[in-house]
């Protein structure tokens, strides 16, 4: 799967999630969209939850900076900042992560503590392989 391929947005939620995780661990970064108020957020069903969408690279993040988000800019987040700042801050603000949304703005959704656990498990697994 190639992130430069427009068909990447047609992948299943799970396939986009796997691609996101691989890219996150390969490049040690992820991308969000921001405006003058901070990170772009989406409202969940009936406004019960708010999500911050995360993308694996600048190009896919910028793909969404159109129409109602045309004023937004892609912002790079380092792996360390995601772990040490963003996940704790999102937990405190009751926000969830929407990982690499597809064309219909759907994707895998995680609570920050849940995503933090995934990262730690993957880091531990990598450490054992060395």
Q: Would you write up a description of this structure?
A:
This protein has 4 helices and 7 strands. With 130 residues, it is α+β, with helices and mostly antiparallel strands. The strands form 2 sheets. It has a 4-stranded mixed beta sheet with strand order 3-4-6-7. A 3-stranded antiparallel beta sheet has the order 2-1-5. The longest helix is centred in the last third of the chain and has 18 residues. The radius of gyration is 14 Å and the shape is globular.
Q: Tell me the strand order in the biggest sheet.
A: 3-4-6-7
Gyration radius (Cα, Å) is: 14 Å
Distance between the termini: 26 Å
How much helicity do the residues have? 40-55%
How much strand?
15-25%
N to C succession of SSEs: HEEEEHEHEEH
What key phrases describe this protein's structure?
130 residues; four-stranded mixed sheet; three-stranded antiparallel sheet; 4 helices
SSE blueprint and pairings:
Elements lengths: L12 H15 L1 E7 L2 E2 L2 E2 L6 E5 L3 H6 L9 E6 H14 L2 E5 L8 E3 L1 H18 L1
Parallel strand pairs: 4-6
Antiparallel strand pairs: 1-2, 1-5, 3-4, 6-7
């Amino acid at each position: 799967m190639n992130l430069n391929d427009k068909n990447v947005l047609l992948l299943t939620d799970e396939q986009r999630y796997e691609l996101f995780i691989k890219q996150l661990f390969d490049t040690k970064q992820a991308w969000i969209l921001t405006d003058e108020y901070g990170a772009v957020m989406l409202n969940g069903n009936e406004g019960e939850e708010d999500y911050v969408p995360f993308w694996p690279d600048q190009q896919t993040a910028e793909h969404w900076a159109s129409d109602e988000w045309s004023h937004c800019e892609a912002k790079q987040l380092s792996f360390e900042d995601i772990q040490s700042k963003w996940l704790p801050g999102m937990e405190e603000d009751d926000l969830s992560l929407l990982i690499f949304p597809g064309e219909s703005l759907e994707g895998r959704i995680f609570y920050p503590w849940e995503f933090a656990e995934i990262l730690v498990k993957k880091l531990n697994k990598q450490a054992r392989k060395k």
